[in-house]
Amino acid sequence: MPRIPSPAIAAVGLVGGYAVARWTKKRPLGGVVLAAAGGVAAKEWQQVGGVKASVGLTAAYVAAFAGSHPLAKKIGAWPAVFSVAGAMAAASWAVTRGND
């Protein structure tokens, strides 16, 4: 079975988590999606880049989620989510160099 690249997993986790929370009106359910994708991405980051890469990118993933909230107040919710998802995908790709 082909592996899904970790930059895509991270971006989909951020966008999907927000979408689920917004459309179901159940924030914890969005958190489950966010956490599940983050866990899968962290596993991929560790396999490809090692423990340091995984820890650093996981911290960036959490920071992207947290940073989307104040950013949303300035540019809107969806633009903020897409911005942090894109930044997270780029960071993931830069660290793993697309090796996954």
Annotation, overall tally of beta strands: 0
- SS class: mainly alpha
Largest sheet: none
Task: Evaluate the radius of gyration.
Answer: 13 Å
Helix share bin: over 70%
Distance between the termini: 13 Å
**Global shape:** globular
Give the count of helical stretches.
Answer: 4
Percent strand: under 5%
Order of helices and strands: HHHH
Mean pLDDT equals 95
Q: Which consecutive residue ranges, at least 5 long each, have pLDDT under 50?
A: none
What would you note in describing this structure?
The chain has 100 residues and is mostly helical. Helix content is 87%, strand content 0%. It has 4 helices and no strands. The chain has helices spanning 6-24, 27-49, 51-75, 77-96. The radius of gyration is 13 Å and the shape is globular. The two termini are 13 Å apart. The mean pLDDT is 95.
Strand and helix map with partners:
Layout: H1 6-24, H2 27-49, H3 51-75, H4 77-96
Helix pairs in contact: 1-2, 1-4, 2-3, 3-4
Task: Give structural attributes.
globular; 100 residues
Brief overview:
With 100 residues, the chain is mainly alpha-helical. It has helices spanning 6-24, 27-49, 51-75, 77-96. 87% of the residues lie in helices and 0% in strands.
